[in-house]
Amino acid sequence: MGRTKPIGTMGPGLRAAGFVSLAGIVAVNAMGVVDHDTESGMGCGAHWPLCHGALVPAFSNQSVIIEYVHRLLTLGFTIALVVFLVDALRRYHTERSWKYMSWSLIALLLIETAICTAGVLWTVPNAIMSWLMPVGLAAQALLWVMVRQGDGGPSAVRSAVTFRLAALALFGYLYLGAWISYAGPGTLARGFMIGSGVLLALIGLYWIVRDWQSGVSITRMVWPVLAAPFVVQFTRSTVAGDLAVFAWLSWMTAIVAVRFAGGLGKPGDAAVTLASVRDASQA
User: Fold this and answer.
1) Domain limits at 35?
2) Tens digit of pLDDT for each residue in 162-205?
3) CA distance 140 to 134
4) DSSP summary character for residue 8
5) What is the DSSP string of 37-102?
6) 159 located within any domain
7) What is the pTM of this model?
8) Of 17, 121, 216, 221, which one is least surrounded by beta carbons within 10 A?
9) pLDDT value of position 17
10) Is 148 part of any domain?
11) What is the C-alpha to C-alpha distance for residues 92 and 86, in angstroms, rounded to an integer?
12) CA dihedral 2, 7, 10, 14 (to 10 degrees)
């Protein structure tokens, strides 16, 4: 499988659209956390895409403002993403992995949009709404890989046992955390979440040792994974606290995405390090 050109070969317009898209999806997901914590999801009523039946509603309370800003951020992100994907697919139309990542990203975003829209129009069970966090973070991490690193050979890692375990543990961890945040179930779900966090931490420790032995400089990125068992739920005490957890989860999912796309399936594989990405972006 061929490799895409590094980001340094991208034109300024494509690079700008990519980084705006990345900033946009982070802002949209972070605003979703604020939406959830302040219970502003129905700030625009049961109307979509309009807000209380109007293009620009009367900003009568905090919930309307928060939900309207959330929707504006989503619109801006969507425009930037369309520009980025159309130009990137035109430029890299011969790269199978870019097509794979692009369509995977689109599928994740469609799922996220469908759940959000259903949540506005109807009463959706917590078991379904809880998918918003893992799906949103997966889309965010995938876009991060596309913008910052391009193709690093996803198929090289997709069959690795450690990656399958990490992906399963991470999705279980994120889903159970979101479910606890929505529904507040009992100790069993919390126990499963802690267990999946312990598994993530053990996999992270394995990666650290393996990278240290093979001389891969990406080791320092893996340390945040070790905190997984200690974050047993998405805190509901303050918006700032939840945003801090969101930032940590974003970093952790990005680590797994880098493993998936960076060709780190086994010691000796070619590695895309932060330094190489930085050097390419400055070329």
Assistant:
1) 9-281
2) 777 888 899 899 998 888 888 766 678 888 888 999 999 998 88
3) 10
4) G
5) HTT-TTTT-S-SSSBTTBSS----SHHHHHHHHHHHHHHHHHHHHHHHHHHHHHHTTT-HHHHHHH
6) yes
7) 0.81
8) 121
9) 87
10) yes
11) 10
12) 110
Number of domains within the chain: 1
How many angstroms separate the CA atoms of 120 and 102, rounded?
27
Higher-pLDDT residue of 1 and 51 is 51
pLDDT tens for residues 34-69? 998 898 988 998 887 789 888 899 898 999 999 999
Amino acid identity of residue 229, one-letter, is: P
Give the span between the Cα atoms of 98 and 239, in whole angstroms: 36
Distance of alpha carbon 60 from alpha carbon 112, whole angstroms: 28
Report helix, strand or coil for 148. Answer: helix
Residue 170 lies in a domain: yes
Q: How far is CA 144 from CA 42, 91, 117, 261, in A?
A: 30, 18, 25, 11
Contacts of 228 (CB under 8 A, 6+ apart): 173, 196, 197, 198, 200, 201, 204, 252
161-183 helix and 187-214 helix, angle to the nearest 10 degrees: 150
Give the separation between CA 191 and CA 176, rounded to whole angstroms: 10
Write out the two tokens for 49.
């895409």
